[in-house]
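Sanity check

After download, print the first record. It should look like this:
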Amino acid sequence: MRDARPDSSLPFMKMHGAGNDFVIIDSRGRRPVTTAALAAALGDRHRGVGFDQLAEIRDGEGADFTLDFWNSDGSRAGACGNASRCVADHVMAGLGRDSVTFTTERGTLVAVRRSDGLVSVNMGAPILDWRAVPLAREVDTLRLPVTGDPAAVGMGNPHCVFFVPDAEAVDLARDGAAMEHHPLFPEATNVEYACVTGPDRLRMRVWERGAGITLACGSGACATAVAAHRRGLTGRQVTLDLDGGTLEIDWREDGVWMTGPTARVFDGWLSPAFLAAHA
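Expected structure tokens:
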């Protein structure tokens, strides 16, 4: 992937975790290339490649690598759990190891490959203080003063979690889009709708900040599991069924661990003309 063609085109990978899809650019050993304009152009599913998030791998200091995340609208994302798992799987394969450390805006994180082939990542401790989520004013993060009685959780990005009788019945395009820019969330928010379907099992659907409806959201699954446990709906180990697949969440003392599948779909090259047009 990292060997550019003679015409100076830029290599990338397309991967997904439970249907949450990513363009991944490996910039280790060279200058990072992603800008807001390039991310937005690549995120266009008609004129670019299309993705929920873009992850750029950089050289790490005190870790195996560093990750930067971008949304499909060109905005930055502070965290992306499924992209972290996908990149970790790729790097572990290259290093011949079953564990790696990497840095994001959340700090230094750990990922491991389990014996069943699934990849787990420690997403760090959940953020439950209103200032750090962040929210616009002091409120109880477990019971927001918003119609529908949602909870707020930070996982490196803000989340607003609604517990509903039937997640399938939610008009996600209407309600998620309306909630993304609620005044209580000064940096906007991811929006999750979940319902209990069994002991320690939830059905969850998500509207992602800067991306819209996605088939899965790793940080959203973590936030939903944390909120569900705080509400007394589940234990600390939760299985979540999303539109694109299933994720396992385990809120441990050292952080919120998320486990699920990864898939490398194809490798490609961005043409010099495309790069020049969106520099």
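If your output differs, re-run the checksum step. Summary of this record's structure: The mean pLDDT is 95.
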